[in-house]
């Protein structure tokens, strides 16, 4: 079994879409750990704020199957392929880490470079795993946070109830949701 980390983001009905993603991923992969949820402005375009988080789970599925499962959840939530990279999203699920795998060939690149580029990806990842090291460089992720240029106050923690079952994420506390 390998630990998988997935970034989750939406700015179109974001509360609904993040909850739908958690339920679908729990149905598919079982026990999830959920980061706090953060609100942040759209990046690269003018649009509504995004809600972002990171979800982690373990699986023995190969990388390609995990990526296909994430794409299926996005599609089920209204995501259309071929849209502009920086545009509103019903749901965006990105495989960030697949254990300590480093993948540099093909369409999937791991670890995903957004980890070192965007605070709305790195902050919730660090909330789940503060001691996590970058698989390719060995650099502690906390060092990357210190080096990441952020706009002060850009990320706002959100009190968020992940599902009707009471999975919650408040401030910097991680949540856990059981398999459904």
Count of runs of 4 or more consecutive helical residues:
5
Task: Kindly name the structural category.
Answer: alpha+beta
Biggest sheet layout: 7 strands, antiparallel
What form results from the Cα inertia axes? globular
Helix content: 25-40%
How do the SSEs run, as a string of H and E?
EHEEEHEHHHEEEE
Proportion of β residues?
Answer: 15-25%
Summary keywords:
180 residues, alpha+beta, two-stranded antiparallel ribbon, globular
Question: What does this 3D model show about the protein?
Answer:
The chain has 180 residues and is of the alpha+beta class. 28% of the residues lie in helices and 24% in strands. It has 5 helices and 9 strands; from the N terminus they run βαβββαβαααββββ. Strands 1, 2, 3, 4, 5, 6 and 9 form a 7-stranded antiparallel sheet that branches. Strand 7 and strand 8 form a beta hairpin. Helix 1 packs antiparallel against helix 2. The radius of gyration is 15 Å and the shape is globular. The two termini are 20 Å apart. The relative contact order is 0.23. About 3% of the residues have low confidence.
List the helices and strands and how they pair.
Blueprint: E1 2-10, H1 14-29, E2 32-34, E3 37-40, E4 50-59, H2 63-76, E5 92-98, H3 114-117, H4 119-128, H5 141-147, E6 156-158, E7 160-161, E8 168-169, E9 175-177
Antiparallel strand pairs: 1-4, 1-5, 2-4, 2-9, 3-4, 3-6, 7-8
Helix pairs in contact: 1-2, 4-5
């Amino acid at each position: 079994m390998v630990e998988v980390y997935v970034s989750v983001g939406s700015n179109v009905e974001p509360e609904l879409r993040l909850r739908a993603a958690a339920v679908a991923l729990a149905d598919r992969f079982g026990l999830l750990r959920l980061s706090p949820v953060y609100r942040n402005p759209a990046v690269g375009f003018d649009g509504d704020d995004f809600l972002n988080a990171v979800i982690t789970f373990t699986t023995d599925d190969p990388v390609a199957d995990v990526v296909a499962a994430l794409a299926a959840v996005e599609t089920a939530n209204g995501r259309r392929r071929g849209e502009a990279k920086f545009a509103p999203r019903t749901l965006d699920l990105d495989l960030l880490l697949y254990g300590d795998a480093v993948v540099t060939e093909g369409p999937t690149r791991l670890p995903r470079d957004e980890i070192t580029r965007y605070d709305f990806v790195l902050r919730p990842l660090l909330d789940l795993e503060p001691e996590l090291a970058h698989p390719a460089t060995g650099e502690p992720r906390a060092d990357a946070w210190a080096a990441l240029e952020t706009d002060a106050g850009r990320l706002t923690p959100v009190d968020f109830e992940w599902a009707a079952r009471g999975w919650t994420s408040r401030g910097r506390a991680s949540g856990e949701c059981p398999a459904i």
